[in-house]
Amino acid sequence: MMADPQVADGVIPEDLDAHRALRRKDLLGIEDLDPDEIRLILDTAEHFKEISRRAIKKVPTLRGKSVINLFFEPSTRTRTSFEIAAKRLSADTQSISASTSAVVKGETLIDTARNIEAMFPDLLVIRHAFPGAAKVLADTCSAGVINAGDGAHEHPTQALLDALTIRDHKGDFDGLRVVIFGDIAHSRVVRSSIHCLRKLGAEVVLAAPPTFLPKGIEQMGVEVHHRLEPALEGADVVMALRVQLERGGKLSFPSTQEYFRLFGLNRERLALAKEDAIVMHPGPMNRGVEIASDVADGPSSVILDQVSNGVAVRMAVLYLLAGSGAAKHVETAA
Fold it and tell me: Could you give the 3-state DSSP secondary structure of residue 267?
């Protein structure tokens, strides 16, 4: 059993490295993780929550390590929480956006990565519009790579922080009915969440208009509905997804008012779920489109808990990859 990192001087014990590590160089998606690895990240994040409640929110765990954030798409929560997570672990951080990088001059992603790696970073965190961009980076670089969202493919740390939030409020995943509704087609969150929740034992239910449902999504082992009401019946967790107008979502319905009338989460629809159901949203929210303000701000909402847990989860991922030196050692097994 691992020693608790909460100690009098605020330092996480050095022998923690011997007990905890992800035996992989990169975190590219949830699909590749086994349930024990997911639980390891969640358990580690649970310990790191305490640091964020201290008067001095910093430990020297990753002192001397460097983390570079490469964000080629806009981000508030993910980018900020990765920056805060690295700084709370005392890592050196540098953030690069597309508008301030050589990409605007025509440099390729691989050339950008190779030039950055020549500066010997320990971890690269990347968000990119194209699915597989994180994998390209991981195959190119010896530094560890963390996928902060690649197109409509995966967003692993979002799924992990959502799982931590669910565990905080529900205790366990076995038998939980988790409803995810909205713009399924354009969401990278939903793919990671399906993999994560099903591996932990939850039942995943999707609800969306036909124009927002990818063909063959049922093959991921989920229940699918074209109306929200039947999906919500008996739900323990209700997660709204943003309509991604920038990815073509605006072409899938006549107007935002019509979408909310037919598919928005209001108090009447939420009443179909269990009385103690929690409401989640990965953000940013379109109030009055996929969710009503009185639901987003209501007693069932745990949306701000998700944001808080995002820092702890990203601290855990950074620690488990870089803190134990795992970012420099890749398993040789296929």
Answer: helix
267 is catalytic: no
Distance CA 266, CA 10 (A): 44
| Partners of 124 in the β-ladder | 68, 145
pLDDT tens digit sequence for 182-214:
999 989 999 999 999 999 999 999 999 998 999
Rounded Cα distance, 274 and 272, in Å: 7
Angle between helices 156-170 and 303-318 (to 10 degrees): 120
Task: Give me the helices (H) in 118-227, please.
Answer: 133-140, 156-170, 188-199
Where are the extended beta strands (E) located within the chain? 66-71, 92-97, 123-128, 144-150, 177-181, 203-207, 223-225, 237-240, 278-280
Q: Looking at 53, 100, 105, 332, which residue is catalytic?
A: 105
Among 170, 126, 200, which residue's Cα sits nearest to residue 277?
170
Question: CA-to-CA distance for 331 and 51, rounded, in angstroms?
Answer: 31
Catalytic residue among 25, 47, 49, 127: 127
* pLDDT digit string, tens, across residues 88-141: 999 999 988 765 555 555 678 888 888 888 999 999 999 998 999 999 999 989
The single residue of 39, 77, 247, 287 carrying the catalytic annotation is: 77
Q: Which residue has the tokens 């870089």?
A: 322
Decide if 157 is catalytic.
Answer: no
Upstream peptide bond of 60 is cis (omega within 30 degrees of 0):
no
Q: Quick check: is 100 catalytic?
A: no
